[in-house]
Amino acid sequence: MAKKFYVVWQGRETGIFTTWDQTKKLVDKFPGARYKSFPSQAEAEAAFGKGATSTLARKTSPKPASTLKKASAPENTTKYDVEIYTDGGCEPNPGKAGSGIAVYRNGELSELWYGLYNAFGTNNTAELNALHQALLIAQDNLKQGKSVHILSDSQYSINCITNWAYGWKQKGWKRKTAGDIKNLEIIQISHAIYEEIKEKLQISHVAAHVGIEGNELADRMSIYAIDRKDTQFCRYPEPIELASILSLRAG
């Protein structure tokens, strides 16, 4: 049987997946789920980028690349009380690393966070640190009865917390093959939070550097953390001047 690639635009997690069993768990009984299979990875990536509305309706409506988009994910019209964009940066990789977050409340930019500087970090560690902080913010807001959507451009960090951790945990936090699990401590801590709130939480993969405002801001914050060398996770001071933030060095 030829291998298929499954695109999930709306589900418990969004992105491109390689098995129907995994995909079914993400879309089964999920209100408004939107997904489709493709015969090649290239077609799946193109369709994910175009969005569900464009692909499923077989029509295109390209947007200028220079226009910042506030959409949480391609063509996702679902509204959330809180949207949290995460990103990690590392210069070089491995090297100086930092994490960043952009938080939107009711569709409006609310706060920016940066920090967790590590002079001997990696991009994956920085991404996981950012996702961990986002999960903490999500946990607090879910307790207040708010709906929350986390958006990360790192498939690795999403898979570590929401997918691979289950298999590792069953094996006593060991891999199938020889070798230790990298970044195990932050994965375990983050997975424990995810397990507590996953039924109410939406986590999605979002494309990096395609003009999505929240992703661009989280990117700037991760590099700002490297420049500032802040080891704590700090809130960026207000007032937030969007143009000024976006003009900062990108990762």
Give a nutshell description of this structure.
By secondary structure, the chain is of the alpha/beta class.
What does this structure look like?
- Helix 4 (123-143) packs parallel to helix 6 (184-197) and helix 5 crosses helix 6.
- The chain has 251 residues and is α/β, with parallel strands linked by helices.
- Strand 1 (5-10) and strand 2 form a beta hairpin.
- The chain has helices at residues 20-27, 41-50, 52-56, 123-143, 155-170, 184-197, 213-228, 242-246, and strands at 5-10, 13-17, 34-38, 82-91, 95-105, 108-121, 148-152, 201-205, 233-235.
- It has 2 domains: 5-51, Ribonuclease HI, Chain A, CATH 3.40.970; 82-247, Ribonuclease H-like superfamily/Ribonuclease H (Nucleotidyltransferase, domain 5, 2-Layer Sandwich), CATH 3.30.420.10.
- The radius of gyration is 18 Å and the shape is globular.
- The chain is 38% helix and 25% strand.
- The chain has a 9-stranded mixed β-sheet, with helices on both faces.
Sequence-ordered SSE layout with sheet pairings:
Elements: E1 5-10, E2 13-17, H1 20-27, E3 34-38, H2 41-50, H3 52-56, E4 82-91, E5 95-105, E6 108-121, H4 123-143, E7 148-152, H5 155-170, H6 184-197, E8 201-205, H7 213-228, E9 233-235, H8 242-246
Parallel strand pairs: 2-8, 4-7, 7-8
Antiparallel strand pairs: 1-2, 1-3, 4-5, 5-6, 6-9
Helix pairs in contact: 4-6, 5-6
> What is the ordering of alpha helices and beta strands?
EEHEHHEEEHEHHEHEH
pLDDT averaged residue by residue: 86
CATH architecture of the largest domain: 2-Layer Sandwich
CATH class descriptor name of the largest domain: Alpha Beta
